[in-house]
Every structure is written in structure tokens, then in C-alpha cells.
Amino acid sequence: MNVLPCSVNTLKGLYDISSVEVGQHFYWQIGGFQVHAQVLITSWVVIAILLGSATIAVRNPQTIPTDGQNFFEYVLEFIRDLSKTQIGEEYGPWVPFIGTMFLFIFVSNWSGALLPRKIIQLPHGELAAPTNDINTTVALALPTSVAYFYAGLTKKGLSYFGKYIQPTPILLPINILEDFTKPLSLSFRLFGNILADELVVVVLVSLVPSVVPIPVMFLGLFTSGIQALIFATLAAAYIGESMEGHH
Amino acid sequence: MSNMIMASSSKTLITSSSIQSTPKPPKFQLPQFSTLKIRNHHHHQNNKTPILTLNSLKSSAAIATAAATVLTMAPPSLAAEIEKAALFDFNLTLPLIMAEFLFLMVALDKIYYTPLGNFMDKRDAEIREKLSSVKDTSAEVKQLDEQAAAIMRAARAEISAALNQMKKETTAEVEAKMAEGRKKVEAELAEALAALEKQKDETIKALDSQIAALSDEIVKKVLPI
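YS: structure for the whole thing
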């Protein structure tokens, strides 16, 4: 007779230990709209880290760079190189967009993996990487779409839309579909990877609390970097694609 | 569409700590899965028959499996009862993050990309300029090198000229001394020769006189007087 409550209690204990929370949000109400507060808080942290470190490192540039400046110069060179390879010679104006895309996603992903956010208890939900939320990834993917449309239209004018019937008009529906699949794939790739990565770590930690999750955590760091690179590279590639001349 | 995804995901992903909104059953703090409700119900039935028989266990197991099937096919209303596990929950967060991203882009451009990029470009240009100026001084170095070579050539010519002159001077001196020596030797020779001649003449003269005397004596001895 006591079997069921007993087992239920142990089950509850297990649940308490392995409280894997997916899709739980800490809501704020802003003017009748709901927002995911944990995403906003973590994104503020990320923005603060980026702006703060950049300000400190670039405040007083030296001809022979100091450590921090050297690192930021390396990052800038990396971003420029990435933009140049994808966009071509006219990459200059797109460096801020691609760079911010890369840095924001990269720092977001790593912050989810590195910062001990479990310490701060939220009333509901938990702090994680901002890219863990579909809102963030879509919010990054949509400007990418806008950006490549803008790039194509400013470069070629209305003849930009000629690419929809390239190489043959039969491909028109597929070409139009591509404009929808691009942001969709961008956002879902990032969202799925980061969510899955954090979930795997959390589940492994709940099952085996020591040693075993560490390789997975490193794998998570690796995945985070790769995903940021992929997002930035693809965004640059889309922009470059819409700017290049079609035949 | 997102609502449907939410509903479907909520069934499998929901956990105990997230359940707070729905009224709780008296005994259990567990999630209000339909299984548990049915188990609970069954449990109450068992209370009426205090002895837990094998049969009732079997029946409870059967009911549990039934409950499991009910759980897998839970109606949307049940999912709505459970708090939304909103994986695809689009709301105001999206435009806010977009605005934050744009703000970050502008801010980073102002404090990072543009200043540091300009600084790096300027430094690049400076270094290139210095490099080209270094190439110019290499021409200067070549000129200096040529100058040095010319100086060396001139010095060498001077030295050889001086050497030649010295050689000439010394040879002249040597020749003069040799000529002097030769003259002296010749003079001595001539003197010696003259002395010798004189002696010869004297000896011949003496011999002549002796010849006369000798011939007289020979004549005297040979010719008996």
C-alpha cells in the first residue's frame, strides 16, 4: 500500500536532483507584452562584457600593441578577413555587422557554458546563454535577411530581383523559398545547437556529477565557437552572394 | 503553429520543478501527469480494500499502462493545464534583442571597429612608408659605397705613384752610387795599370841596360880578347 507513495517520493527526489528545465521562462510584463527576462538579463551581461572589454582595450591604442589591444586587433583582423573572403573587396561597411554578429553570438554561447549562472536563482526558469532562446536567434537571423536585401538593392538597384529567375525562370519558386529558408535555417541551427549542447551538459551533470561531463563541456565550448563562426560566415556569404554580379 | 509545438513539447519535457500553476493533489507534489491522477484515484479505491492483493496489483499495473497510453495521447486541454513549456515562444523579447543587437553594433562600431581599424590602417601605412624610405637609403648607401670605392682607388693610385717614384729615386741613387764606385774602380784600375806600365817600362829599361852589359860580358867571355 505504501509502495506507490514511496516510489513516487523517490521519483520526486530524482526529479529534484535532475531538474532539467526546458522552455521555462522567467516572464516580465512590459506594457501588456511578455518578455523572457532571463534572456534579456544575460544579453545585457554579454553586451556589458563586450563593450567594457573593448573600451578598456582600445581606449588608448599603442603603436606596439599591449596584450589586450593585441587580442582585439587579432579579433578585428579575423573579422575583416572573414568578411573579405565572403563579401569581397567591398567588405568595409559590413565589418560592424558581421563582427557584432560573431562577437555577440560567440560571447553569448561561451557565457552560457562558462559563467556559473546556477548561483543566481531566478523565481522561475534559469539563466543560460541568450542564444538558447529562439527569440534571440530569430532576432539575429532577421537582420541578416534585411542586410542581404539591402546590400543587393543598394548595389544593383531593382535589377537585384533578376536573380530570382537565374539561371532559369523555372527556379523562381525555389529562389523565393530560399529567402525564407535562409533566416529559418540560420536561427534554428544556432538555437538547436546551443540548446542541445546545454541540455546534454545539464543531463550529464545530473546523471554523473563529476568528471564525465567535462569532455562534453569542452565539446560544448567548441560547438559554441563553431556555431558563432558559422552564423557570421553564412551571414557574410549571403551578403556577398547578393552583391556579386550575376551572369 | 508555435502553440501546437508548445503543446506537443510540453508533454515530454515538463518536469516537477516547473509545475506550480495547477491545483495540487493532496498527497503528491509530483507533476500532474494524467498517470498520476489515475494512480491516485486507484490508490483511493485500494483504501477501501485494505489488503493489497496480487490481483489488485495486476489491475493497477493494467491501469498504469492504460494511463501511460492516455498520457501519450493527452488531449491539448491537459497540456494547457500544465504550464506551458514554451520552447518556441515568440514575444516582445525578439524585437528587444534585435534593438539590443543594433545598439551593440553601433556602439562597437563607435568604440572598437572604426577607431581600432583606422589606427591599424594608419600604422600599416606608416610602416609601409618607413619601409619604402628604408629602400631609398639603400640607394644612398650604394652611393656612399661608390664614394668609398673611389676614395680607395684614388688612395691606391697615390700609393702606387709614390711607390714608383720612390723606386725611381732609389734606383737613380743606386745607379749614381754604382757609377761613382765604377769610376773610382776605373780610376784605380787606370792608376794601377799606369803604375804597372811604368814599372814595366822601368824594368824593360833596366833590362835594356842589363842586356847591354850582359851582351858585353857574353862577348868578352865568348870572344877571347
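YS: worth flagging: Residues 93-222 of chain B form the longest helix (130 residues).
IM: good catch. Also Residues 190 and 196 of chain B are 9 Å apart (CA to CA).
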